[in-house]
Amino acid sequence: MGISILDVKELKFENSDVKELSALAYDNKILYALGDKGFLYHFDMKIKNQEIKKLKLQKVFKLKNKNKKRLKKSQRDSEGIALVGDDILISFEKKPRVTRFSTKGVKIKDMKINKALRDIKNYKGANKALEALAYSEKYGIITAAELPLKGRDENLHTLYAQKKEWQFQKQGSVTSLEFMSKNSLMILQRKFNNFTRQRVITISQLNLKTNKYKILAKFDTRDGWNIDNFEGLTKVSKNKYLMISDDNGSFLQKTLLVLFEVNE
Question: What pTM does this model have?
Answer without folding.
Answer: 0.94
